[in-house]
Structure formats: C-alpha cells, structure tokens
Write a structure and sequence with these properties.
The complex is a heterodimer of chains A (about 280) and B (about 475). Chain A has a domain at about 25-140. A two-stranded antiparallel ribbon of chain A has the order 1-2. Chain A contains ten helices and two strands. Chain A has helices spanning about 5-15, 25-40, 45-60, 70-90, 110-135, 140-150, 155-185, 190-220, 240-265, 270-275, and strands spanning about 100-105, 110. In chain A, a hairpin with a 2-residue loop joins β1 (about 100-105) and β2 (about 110). By secondary structure, chain A is mainly alpha-helical. Chain B has a six-stranded mixed sheet with strand order 5-6-7-3-9-10, sandwiched between helices. In chain B, strands 17-18-19-14-20-21 form a six-stranded mixed sheet, with helices on both faces. Chain B has two domains: about 5-220, Rossmann fold; about 230-465, 3-Layer(aba) Sandwich (Rossmann fold), CATH 3.40.50. In chain B, α2 crosses α3 (about 105-115) and α2 (about 90-100) packs parallel to α4 (about 130-145). Chain B is α/β, with parallel strands linked by helices and about 475 residues long. In chain B, a hairpin with a 2-residue loop joins β9 and β10 (about 205). Classes of the chains: A mainly alpha (about 280), B alpha/beta (about 475). At the A-B interface, α1, α6, α7 and α8 of A face β5, α2, α3 and α4 of B.
C-alpha cells in the first residue's frame, strides 16, 4: 500500500472514530420511544411529560447524532402554535361552569380547569413531538429498518415504515429545492406572502416528486437485492448485547407497572390542576 | 454465457407501438458490450429488460435466460441513490448487506471499491454533500460490491470527469477479468464505450444489423477532439457583461473557491471544466447567491446593463435573477408545474402592473412563453408533463424558463448530460440564439469535445482557482 493510500486510510479511520460508537441499538431506541409515549399518555400527571422532555433535551444536547439547533427548530415550529391554540381554546374559553376563574375580560376567562387541560395536552403533545423528532432526526431509513427487523417485524412492513421515515428529509430537501428554483427566477421567497402565493405550485410539484421518488427508490433497491431470497444482514453496524436485550424486556414491564400503579393510586402524582394551585 | 435474449418484444402499458422489437442479444461473461442509440430509441428499456424490471410495466414476449445476478444503474442522475442511508459508507455497503454478505465482508468490499474508484476519502461524508459525479460513483460502488454476474450501466459516464472515467474503465476491466460481464448503454460515445469489445446500435427499438457510423444513428461523440482550437473562434472585445473578482467560497475549514476572477463578454460561451467535486456547481450557485448559510462567500460580482454597473454580491438571490439565469445540474429539482407550457408561464413573477392592465400583461406573458417554447423547440411537447420527458428535454425546459426572465447571462450547470446528437444540436441552437442577442453563457461541463468545439473561452477549475 502506498504512503498516500495509508495516509488516507488513517484519515478515514480517524473520521470514523468521531461517529457515535456507544449508541444504543435502534431496536432498543424504538422500545424506549414507545414506552416513553406510553408513560406520557398513560399517567395523568404533567410531571411525566416534563421528566420525559427534560430527558430528551439532555439527550439531544449530549448526543452527536442529533443537532440541537435542528431539533429545537423542529419542536418549536410544531409546539409553539399548538400552545397558542390550546391556551386560546381551552384556557380562555373552557366550556365548564363550575370553574375557578383567575382572570376575565368579556367572554374570555382564564380558568384553572381550562388552563390545566391546556397545559396537560400541550406537555403531552410536546413530549410526543420532542421524542419523535429526536429519533427521526437521529436516524435514517436503514437504521429504522434494522430496528424494526430486530423487533421481528416482517421485512416488507419494516421496509414500508423505513421508506416512510425516509420521505421526511426528502420532502424537506425537495421543498427547499423548489423554493430555490423560484428564487432563481425572481420570486422573493423570503416573504411569507410570496410563499403562500406559490404554495399550490409547490405542493403540486412536491406530490409529483414524492410519487416519482418512491417508485425510483424502489427500483434502485430492487436492483440492489431488496427482494433477493438471501437473509439480509443488518444494513448498518450497531452495538448490541445482553444488557440491551434485558433493557428491551424490562423497559416495557416497568412502564406497564408504573401505569398500573398510577391507575390503582399507588403512585400518587399531582395533576395539572393541583400544580397550578386553584383546585 | 450470462444473459441470452431471443426475439424479445416489449410494449409499455397504454402504448400502441413496441418499445423493443425482435431483440436477440447474448451478453457473454468476461466481455464489455455497448448499445448506443438516440434518445427514445429504447436503450433504457433494454437495460430494464436485462435487469428483469419490465414484467410489471407492459407486455413482454420472447425468451430471456439469465444465468446469475444482474445489477442495474439507471440513467437518471437524480435517482441513483437508495434513499435508505445518509452516509457514503452505508450506501456503498447496502447491496452487499441486502444480499446477505457478512458485515465485515460488505465493509471490505465497499471500502476496496471506493478506493479503486478514487473516492475512498468520502467514506464518512453525508450523501447530500456530494457532487453529481461523486453520487454516481457511489451508486456504481453499491451495485458492484456484491459481485454481480452482469453489470448493466445506463449512461454511466455522464456526470464523470475524464479522470474518473479512466478509473471506472479500470474497475470495469478488472471486473470483466474476474469473469463478470458489462453492458453499457447511452446516447454518447465516450471513454467507456471505446473499450467495449462490441458496440451495437439501437434505432426505434430495433438492433441494427449493419454497422452504421456514430453520427448517422444520431449519437453524440463526446471524445475530445484536439483539432478544435480556440484560435478558430471569434473572440469578443466588448466590455464584460459579468465581472467577478476575488470570489472566495469557504465551507467550514475547506476552501472551495480561492480568489477566482472571471469576465463574461457578450456573444461568448465560456466553459468551466474540472474534476468531480472541484466546485463548478458551487461557482454558479455562488454567483446567484444560492449557497446555504454554512458557506462563506466573499468577492465582488458586477453586471453591466445599459452602461450601468450593478453590484450583485450585495443583492439577494431573487434580485440577482434579473441578470443571471441559472439552470441547475438536476433539472427535475427545478420543475414543479403540470405541463411544460405552465412551467414557463409561471416561471417568473409578472412585472408590477395595475389591475386594469392585468389582461394585457398576461397576454404578453403568453406570447413570450410561446416564443420561448418555439426557440427551445418545445412547442410539440408544450402540453406534456415535464417528468414524462427525457433528461435532456427537462434541461431544455429549465433553460427555457431562464429565458423567460430576459436575463443577459445564462449559468448552465452540466447542460450536455444525457444528450444525443439531436439534443446537442438543439442545445447549441438555443445557446447560439442567446449569444446572438448579446447575451453571455457560462457553462460547466465534463464534455471536453463540446467545450473544445463550441466554447469561446475555456476555464479549468483546479484547487479553487480558474486556469485558462
């Protein structure tokens, strides 16, 4: 091997060393994702989504697989409008009659009951979005495919789910390209008014592009052995072991146990109304 | 023998005429064969026939014997990656792993192939940061890594620089020496078709029995013609339309363009050549202001219009587009309308006007679109969906949409990709008409022959700098 070649190998190996080696197996991540969502929606206390959201923020901050800015932008874009809608609909116009009113002006009244429902729903939705964004932004289709197959899903189902998640970045990139193309012809796409005006054309182009891409990608995968009779190995290298296998079994058990304890009253966590303090 | 086809006929569903007629063809182990034909002759359909991808698309008759595995690389540069992975290393191992190879073996094969193709240093790169040629090589590595018996490549050299083509030739020859067979199809002759043991011609879905000349069957010969020199071209002495000084583009710690100077004069076609990933597309995007925030751009870009000098580097992209008409490498990414005519009609915003003048302005736009459709030879396909047309036609539509803006400088990124002789003639006619009207064209290309024969000035990008 030449010096140049060995130097290049060394550079590549050094770069490879920066890729996260200690990351969980995608199957374990999927189990944790599912169990976290189960806890968020199964235990009627805002403390659970707050804990899950805090854990998600810490994970995104320390994880090299997800960029904090990208995650925060995604979550903010989806959660902030939800918060506004919930505060207006539930917080200011809660339909119940037996309520503790904190503030009132005209027909709008801010009640503890309405506010607690808004907070509870928003925290749950935010935890859902935060978790899914963390997993979605940190995984490509191949990673999801490997995770689902490790969980013994049929290859066809795993492929469909993996292809679907692969469409998300594709839609983002395609939208950017279409907007860029319009910019290059004189449309001031920085203005939201112009973007809204161009929306029908953008959506039409996007739908066509998605249909074509799905078809083309399937052809590419077919000619790369997707439907071959061979038993495919994992598409990427992942770390796995007895510890993670145990984690995949114990996490659902613990989650179900916590939900049962909460339902039976053995786990007395405060509700949103109690935390707000009016009820 | 790897694949043997006897008297195969194929008609696409919903079509009346056969795309392939009476094809009898054997591809033998250890050989490289090329099938060339003009656009629409059926070369891509022939590739799918060999790969077994036609059964669900129409009526197929005849006998096809496949002894072994067949791997296909399609012709559409925008659709050669799987979409399953994000990094080069994962993508190049994908086929091996789907075929059940041991991970260590898949890793070794993919690594080895990337090295042979000269892109081993891209192993950890994200796929969305690659140039068109690099993407094509990664796709070649993916399908070649499992060691198929027959490799079917539809226009494999179209996005590659000459050096990369030579590397690919070496890799394919080694593949044949180990007993593999290669079938190459396309609309151009190049370094790859030159080394094929047999070159056959396809015309209107039929393989030709006689041996015609390349030009007589409508093939573009892209092999360099050193006889053509710039001295035969008439150089313009007029003041430049576009002046670029000290253009520098940095992305992270790497410098893509390094103090580049450029003058584009009216009536001149300037070609930009350079290795894959040298920064050719980046140059065009930097001129238009389309680079993302991760790139830092410095330098001055000035256009001359009616004697007035206008600084473009301080303007946003949409304002620059009044002077620069950009046509990107992947034409499909710039198309979004349901018909060719609508694409042109809605390409650019209407000029500011009063409500009562709207009809007159729209009529004017309609007339302009008709005129540009005729100029780009697109009138016949005006009501077709852009994605129903071939890659060359799609590029023509994007060029036509740039002409709708009445720009004075055209920036063309790889306009020669996927063109046969007729499509090249069409491209040259569009460019000539634009130059004759006083415009200037800057075009990146890997087609040395086209650059030699038609460019008035030639630039080569090396280490971020332009060399004449």
């Amino acid at each position: 091997m030449s010096h140049a070649s060995s130097d290049m190998h060394a550079a590549v190996d050094a770069a490879e060393a920066h890729r996260p080696k200690r990351r969980l197996h995608p199957a374990t991540e999927l189990i944790i994702l599912a169990c976290s969502l189960l806890l968020v929606f199964g235990i009627p206390s805002p403390i659970v989504p707050v804990i899950i959201l805090t854990g998600t923020v810490v994970t995104v901050t320390v994880s090299p697989a997800v960029r904090l800015r990208e995650w925060a932008m995604t979550v903010g874009l989806l959660c902030l409008p939800t918060l506004v809608v919930l505060i207006v609909v539930q917080g200011l116009f809660y339909p119940g009659t037996d309520v503790y009113v904190l503030w009132q002006v005209g027909p709008a009244r801010l009640s503890v009951e309405g506010l607690s429902i808004a907070v509870q729903i928003w925290l749950r939705v935010s935890a859902l979005i935060g978790l899914c964004a963390m997993f979605g932004l940190g995984a490509d289709s191949a990673r999801l495919f490997d995770g689902l197959r490790r969980l013994r899903l049929p290859s066809a189902v795993a492929y469909m789910c993996a292809s679907a998640i692969g469409l998300i970045p594709m839609i983002g990139a395609r939208t950017r390209h279409i907007i860029e193309a319009r910019q290059a012809r004189g449309w001031a796409t920085d203005s939201w008014r112009v973007r809204i005006r161009l929306l029908p054309g953008i959506v039409t182009g996007l739908v066509t592009a998605i249909l074509l891409t799905v078809d083309q990608r399937h052809d590419v995968l077919e000619s790369s052995g997707l439907n071959s009779n061979a038993t495919a190995t994992a598409l990427q290298d992942h770390t796995d072991g007895t510890g993670q296998s145990l984690l995949r079994i114990l996490t659902p058990l613990v989650s179900i146990g916590l939900i049962v304890a909460s339902v039976t009253g053995s786990l007395p966590l405060p509700g949103a109304a109690q935390l707000i303090g009016g009820a | 023998m790897t694949v043997s086809i006897t008297d195969a006929w194929f008609t696409y569903r919903g079509e009346d005429t056969a795309a392939l007629s009476g094809i009898t063809f054997d591809v033998v182990s250890g050989t490289m064969t090329a099938v060339l034909g003009p656009l629409g002759s059926g070369t891509s359909t022939l590739c799918r026939l060999f790969a077994g991808q036609l059964v669900s698309r129409g009526a197929l008759t005849g006998t096809i014997d496949r002894n072994g595995t067949v791997a296909l690389l399609g012709d559409d540069p925008e659709a050669q990656l799987s979409g399953m992975t994000s990094h080069v290393g994962d993508e190049s191992q994908l086929a091996c792993r789907l075929y059940g190879h041991d991970p260590a073996d898949a890793h070794r094969r993919a690594r080895n192939l990337l090295e042979l193709l000269g892109i081993g240093d891209l192993w950890n790169r994200r796929l969305d940061t690659l140039s068109g040629g690099q993407r094509q090589l990664v796709a070649v590595a993916r399908i070649l890594a499992p060691g198929p018996d027959l490799l079917v490549l539809d226009q494999p050299a179209q996005s590659l620089d000459p050096q990369m083509r030579v590397r690919l030739v070496t890799v394919l020859q080694e593949f044949c020496d180990r007993g593999g067979a290669v079938l190459i199809t396309g609309h151009q002759t190049d370094e790859l078709t030159r080394i094929c043991e047999e070159v056959r011609f396809l015309d209107a879905g039929r393989l030709q029995t006689a041996t015609p000349t390349v030009r007589s069957v409508g093939i573009w010969d892209s092999r360099p013609n050193d006889d053509a020199t710039l001295s035969t071209m008439l150089r313009s002495q007029a003041d430049p339309l576009l002046t670029v000084r000290d253009l520098t583009v940095d992305r992270g710690s790497s410098r893509i363009l390094d103090g580049l100077d450029l003058d584009l004069r009216p009536g001149e076609l300037t070609s930009v050549t350079g290795a894959n990933g040298a920064g050719k597309s980046t140059l065009l995007r930097a001129l238009l202001g389309l680079l993302d925030r991760s790139a830092s751009v410095t330098g001055t870009i000035t256009v001359s219009r009616l004697g007035e000098m206008i600084r473009l580097d301080t303007l946003p992209a949409h304002a620059r587009s009044a002077h620069l008409g950009w046509v990107g490498q992947d034409a499909g990414l710039q198309l979004s309308a349901a018909t060719v005519a609508r694409e042109l009609l809605h390409a650019a915003p209407l000029p500011p006007h009063r409500r009562r003048d709207r009809k007159r302005v729209r009529d004017h736009r309609l007339a302009a679109a008709d005129s540009v459709l005729a100029e780009a030879d697109l009138t016949e396909v005006a009501d077709d969906h852009p994605f129903d047309l071939d890659v060359a036609r799609r590029k023509d539509i994007v060029i036509a949409s740039a002409l709708m803006t009445e720009t004075t400088v055209l920036l063309l990124d790889e306009p020669t990709i996927g063109r046969d002789l007729a499509a090249m003639t069409r491209l040259n006619a569009i460019i000539e008409s634009f130059l004759n009207s006083g415009g200037a064209v800057l075009a990146t290309t890997h087609d040395q022959r086209w650059a030699n024969e038609f460019a008035h000035r030639r630039l080569r990008l090396i280490d971020g700098r332009a060399r004449s």
